[in-house]
Design brief:
It catalyses: ATP + protein L-histidine = ADP + protein N-phospho-L-histidine. This protein is an alpha+beta fold. The chain is built from 14 helices and 13 strands. The chain folds into three domains: about 120 residues, Jelly Rolls; about 140 residues, no CATH class; about 150 residues, Histidine kinase-like ATPase, C-terminal domain (Heat Shock Protein 90, 2-Layer Sandwich), CATH 3.30.565.10.
């Protein structure tokens, strides 16, 4: 490598040929080979890598997955070199070649020495700014992650608590119903014949086929009517028998036919029917509650993508739906969600877990912008060789100067303590750097749309 290779790189603007020569003399030219690693995440950042030509993908290990965080594909982009100013600096990602080329590998000792000689004040500023910015960004990102995690955890706990509490109540009531069922069977023993019991069971099945659906007022009136009929026929436990009979659609005429079948065994016979109906209803409630819990667990699994690799062929609507479940507690009170999913939208190759982070930020921001009350319209469609996902809210909108800065790191319009300004910045990085897509905002009062455009395959692998 010679001075001519570096002279036109923007990062070396202002350096003389002699200074560039000093840098080259103490450095090494390393060829870039597709698939070959140049440096590894977590190892001491003892070298400063400056791209001359070719391309390098930056990978990080997240859990058990190797995730592409970005790429160096513009001459002059660099990585590493942190130990020039931080004795504990390590590579934040691994560098892997994706296109043939060359990179200048500069030892950090040489980098620090040359900067101290050429720009002594600059060296001190870099060290101070590097340390301060790194600490601030790390703290802010951790705080943002904890806030998001806390919000999702609270919402999920609320979502699971409702069906879990319903299942618990139903199981408790089912215990009472089963005890009543056994008690009624003891009361029937020896008092009814096989024929009578068969006819009673037919009457019970008849109620099941009616599937009566009454409004609360009519149901209460029917329950009172049956209770009065039971009291007139000296049935003592009318408070236990009347509700399930009324809910199943029984009426006085049905009760009269049951009385003709049962004779002196009227109370235990009707108690058996009522207990059987109550047990069936309660079992249905337990089944529905546990089904809802299973769906929530499946949504969490889909949202976290904990059983999938980094790149998957996905249907974006599945990720959006699982995100809506995770944020259900914020959408229930006053937000109407309109889904306008295109039937012709194809499945795409993407980092599913990362896209779910984007959907979370965009939906959460939209709900906050509407102050929890309004309409959120989610649209998916095709646009040439890309798919488009749009989130449109009916909030007050953004002034042009705010929309222009919306994707800047740490820029937020939320009150102190309610936002870090990292949500849209992270969303933009995921969409542009990891997927080769775009994310834009158009806004005016009453309608703000964030549009995400994604290719069928991510930009890097």
């Amino acid at each position: 490598m010679n001075v001519d290779d570096l002279r036109d790189l923007a990062i070396f603007a202002g350096l003389t040929d002699a200074q560039l020569g000093e840098l080259i003399d103490g450095s090494t030219t390393v060829p870039i080979e597709p698939g070959a690693d140049l440096f590894h995440e977590g190892e001491p950042a003892d070298f400063w890598w400056v791209l001359v030509d070719g391309a390098i993908a930056l990978h990080r290990k997240i859990g058990r997955e190797d995730t592409v965080m970005g790429k160096m594909d513009v001459p002059g982009r660099w990585a590493g070199g942190f130990r020039a100013w931080d004795d504990h600096g390590v590579y934040l990602a691994s560098g892997r070649g994706i296109a043939e080329g060359r990179v200048l590998r500069v030892p950090t000792d040489l980098l620090r020495e040359r900067i101290d000689v050429w720009f002594p004040l600059g060296g001190h500023l870099i060290k101070g700014v590097y340390g301060t910015a790194r600490a601030i960004e790390s703290t802010a990102r951790q705080r943002d992650a904890l806030i998001t995690l806390g919000t999702l955890a609270a919402g999920l706990a609320h979502e699971i608590n409702n069906p879990a509490a319903a299942a618990s109540r139903s199981v408790s009531a089912l215990d009472t119903a089963c005890s009543s069922l056994l008690s009624s069977l003891r009361g029937l023993a020896g008092k009814v014949s096989e024929d009578q019991f068969g006819r009673l069971d037919s009457l019970r099945l008849e109620l099941g086929s009616r599937a009566a659906i009454l409004d609360p007022v009519d149901l209460a009136d029917n329950e009172n009517t049956i209770s009065d009929w039971l009291a007139d026929h000296e049935v003592e436990r009318d408070w236990l028998i009347a509700p399930p009979l009324a809910a199943a659609g029984a009426d006085v005429e049905w009760c009269e036919r049951a009385a003709d079948v049962l004779g002196d065994a009227l109370e235990p016979g009707l108690e058996w029917v009522g207990s059987t109906l109550a047990a069936t209803t309660l079992l249905g409630e337990v089944k529905e509650s546990t089904r809802r819990i299973t769906e929530l667990v499946a949504a969490v699994r889909s949202y976290s993508q904990m059983d999938r690799g980094s790149i998957q062929t996905i249907d974006v609507t599945e990720g959006i739906e699982s995100t809506l479940v995770m944020l259900g507690h914020k959408l229930r009170d006053g937000t109407e969600v309109i889904r306008a999913y295109g039937a012709d939208v194809p499945r795409i190759d993407a980092f599913a877990g990362e896209l779910n982070q984007v959907w979370t930020n965009l939906i959460d921001n939209a709900v906050d912008a509407m102050d929890g009350t309004g309409t959120l319209r989610i649209t998916t469609r095709t646009d040439g060789d890309r798919i488009v996902v749009e989130f449109t809210d009916t909030g007050p909108g953004m002034p042009p100067e705010v929309a222009a800065r919306a994707f800047e790191p740490f820029y937020t319009t939320k009150d102190v303590g309610k936002g870090t300004g990292l949500g849209l910045d992270i969303a933009q990085r995921i969409i542009t750097e990891h997927h080769g897509g775009t994310i834009t905002i158009t806004s005016h009062p009453g309608q703000t749309t964030v549009a995400v455009r994604l290719p069928h395959q991510p930009a890097t692998r």
